[in-house]
């Protein structure tokens, strides 16, 4: 059968109105055009669908069957349109967001939660990577957007600051450096460290920096969480490097001291990073606007 959606709408309009004239008006068609299309629908069906009377029409048994299926088809079409609109407006689907450790653990949760709560049919996959790896993924077209440190070069990509995120040296009370106003990373490379677990993006970054300085961190223990790291440092197990916000959060319970790192790479800010605003999915554009990225003008 070659009937389309417009044919089904016309047939239901005529069937519900009990009149070709009234049905044509509901379908916004001229009477002659509606009558011709109805004849074509019946010819396509191979059987009479309407009984024509002096004062209107009624459905044949075949017509009633067509009306039943036509309603189901139109309902499914409405559902399909609704779902496609949800995808188009970023309210449904799966969003993949790449971010460094600090963004995932301290920045994103409180900001992502209210936005995601308004989109119950949208799923988000968070991918923890070093800022350098996020930039590589964006440049290679393997990711839409990410949250990175501004200490990492991102040539050819757009960056927008969304949060301040300096790193600090975390020390136990009474440490010989506790009275310092600031510390250089090279000054603490001889210390015993409490580190984050292998594979943690921030820890990987810190150990890469130590390697560039020609040193290797003396790691006594690795913890899976910032809270665990702060607890260990508070007990004098070693020193650690954490975001300033994390240090503030746990300083009272762990009795630790945070000293600013003077190195340029530690004076970092979190940035939303992407290649081309026009190529972002509606969901990603919506999220970045929510995070404070200004609307981007089309080229």
Helices, strands, pairings?
Elements: H1 5-17, H2 20-26, H3 31-45, E1 50-53, E2 56-59, H4 61-88, E3 92-99, H5 101-117, E4 121-128, H6 131-139, E5 145-149, E6 158-164, E7 167-172, H7 185-188, E8 192-196, H8 201-212, E9 218-223, H9 226-234, E10 240-243, H10 244-254, E11 256-260, E12 269-274, H11 282-290
Parallel strand pairs: 3-4, 3-5, 8-9
Antiparallel strand pairs: 1-2, 5-12, 6-12, 7-10, 7-11
Helix pairs in contact: 1-2, 1-4, 2-3, 9-10
Helicity, as a percent range: 40-55%
Q: Label the structural class.
A: alpha/beta
- What distance separates the N and C termini? 46 Å
Shape, principal axes of CA atoms: rod-shaped
Low-confidence stretches: none
Averaged pLDDT: 88
Task: Please give the number of β-strands.
Answer: 12
Please report the number of helical segments.
11
Rg value: 32 Å
What percent of residues are in strands?
15-25%
Order of helices and strands: HHHEEHEHEHEEEHEHEHEHEEH
Widest sheet: strand ordering: 4-3-5-12-6
- Characterize the largest beta sheet: strand count, sense, and whether it forms a barrel: 5 strands, mixed
